[in-house]
Amino acid sequence: MVTATRHNAPENPDEASAEVPNAGPAVEASVPVAENHAAVALTDAVLPAQAPGVVVDPDDLVDTAKTPTLMDKVQQFRARHEKWEMAVFFFGGFIYDVLTISRIDDTLTLAQNFGYLLVLTGLLLLEQRYPDGVEPPKFLQKVWRWREDGIHFLFGSLLSAFMLLLFKSTSGALPYLFVVGLFALLAANELPLFRRLGPIMRMVLLSLCVTMYFVCLLPVVLGRMGFWVFLLAVAMGCASIFGVMRLIRRWRPDNRYLLRNVAIPGFGVQAALLGLYLVGVIPPLPVAVQFAGIYHQVERVSPGIYHLSSVDSGAWYKPWTWGGPDFLMQPGDKPYYFFRIFAPKHFQSYKVRVRWYFDDPQKGWTTYGNGFMATVSSNGTDGGYRFYATTSNLKPGKWRVVLETEAGHEIHRLNFTAGPDANPGPRVYEVAVSTLKDVKPLALSEWQERAAAAAAKPATAAPKPK
User: Fold this and answer.
1) In what order do the strands lie in the sheet with 385-390?
2) Which of 137, 213, 307, 342 is at 20 to 30 A from 34, Cα to Cα?
């Protein structure tokens, strides 16, 4: 604080207005200065130390700094590592969903993802309502600084859930490229070029998450899949984006801003998703192949029990056998494609097609006929529904078996090579057992031990007291 006073002020007003040599302009009786630097400037420029009648408190000329609190240090650390913080929260959401993901028809998972969408949409709307430079309400001020981290965590969790379900429901290069594209889009959101387009990129991701949620939800609720179900999901996604645009319009009635930042990115994503589904890039959720393999024989030995027999000449201690054919051929052999496919509870019966492809040295990949069509019934269990198909046109070379929906969307593919069996002696089969509850087949010895233990358990149980 700098205070200017007049000593022995004269009673004559004219004398008070006389100029004082080497002194600056007249100073008010009390001049409070808010900042230390301003006090120093006022002392040097307006009130020189040699000027008579000026009293300067030495403590006011000392620059004092506020001791930073723990929260100040945390904020400084976050400011220095802003990009890393966003990446950690995004991948934290991704890992969280990897560890907690469950079946697509799990009610808790569907409710959780719906809650995530509501919170995420609310945060994005609040950002539009209170942009940079506008103070949020008092009840939001303490948590407002964490909104960026919350948005990234929710985006990471939602997109990871959808990508995991896509991985389970498809195979082939194009659908995997779609999943990789989701990762690339989210990574690009952290680049400076894209961060300048923040509202646009966030609307793109929100539109994608909303529609993918309905893509997962509607087949479970309706009990069927197909083009009309996917089209309904896209329509509900468009309705959601339109609702968001109407809410933003209340705070920003700028049609150009709404068109550039909401309408074009939001509805553009819906059009892109519909096009990708039509060309077969997006798989037909919610069906998923849980297990598949090629065998020499498939035999149903009892209700719910299949014996899967195969011949393998390779051995881990003989490296020269590792590159041999996957399917060893003898006269009369046929390959059996055994698979188990999952669909949610109360899902209507649907049809799948098994196609066999051979890599002809002259014609390339060629298919045999129209494929084998099978009607699949959903039992709603984790094990799914089991089925198998075979072909009698086996020849040495590279083979591929593809499982498709009736509409032609690929669900699963498996490549294998066939070659002559160099051992003319009797065959020794490796037998695996497929049960109703176990997704992957069990070794025959393990299944026999389990069956023996189950049979002996009632006999060894102590009698109940009467």
Assistant:
1) 288-295, 336-342, 385-390
2) 137
Q: What is the pLDDT of residues 372-419, one digit of tens each?
A: 888 888 766 666 788 999 998 889 999 999 998 888 888 888 999 998
E strand map for 190-296: 288-295
Q: Where are the domains of the chain?
A: 80-279, 289-316+325-456
Query: Is the separation of the CB atoms in 15 and 52 below 8 Å?
Result: no
Is the CATH number of domain 289-316+325-456 1.10.3470?
Answer: no
Q: pLDDT for 327-358, tens place per residue?
A: 888 888 899 999 998 888 778 888 899 999 99
**Mean pLDDT score across all residues of the chain:** 76
- Please state the separation of Cα 20 from the chain's center in Å: 77
DSSP at 312: -
Residue 152 makes CB contacts below 8 A (sequence gap 6+) with 86, 89, 90, 93
Measured CA angle at 237 (ends 184, 199), to 5 deg: 50
Neighbours of 176 (CB within 10 A): 14
CA distance 118 to 114: 6
Torsion of CA 205, 208, 211, 217, to 10 degrees: -80
Scored b (16 or more CB within 10 A) or e, 269-286 reads bbeebbeebeebbbbbbb
- Cα–Cα separations (whole angstroms), residue 253 to 56, 121, 129, 249: 55, 19, 12, 5
pTM higher than the cut 0.70 = no
Neighbours of 177 (CB within 10 A): 11
The token duo for 256 is 């150009």
Q: Which two tokens stand for residue 330?
A: 């003898």
Write out pLDDT tens, residues 269-324.
999 999 988 887 787 788 888 889 999 999 998 888 999 999 876 555 445 445 56
- Two structure tokens written together for 411: 């669900």
SS3 string of 152-174? Answer: HHHHHHHHHHHHHHHHHCCCCHH
| Cα angle 452-458-459, degrees, rounded to a multiple of 5 | 85
The residue count of the chain comes to 466
Could you tell me which residue, 459 or 268, shows the higher pLDDT? 268
User: What is the C-alpha radius of gyration for the chain, rounded to an integer number of angstroms?
Assistant: 37
**Whole-number Cα distances in Å, 403 to 307, 406, 443, 460:** 22, 10, 26, 46
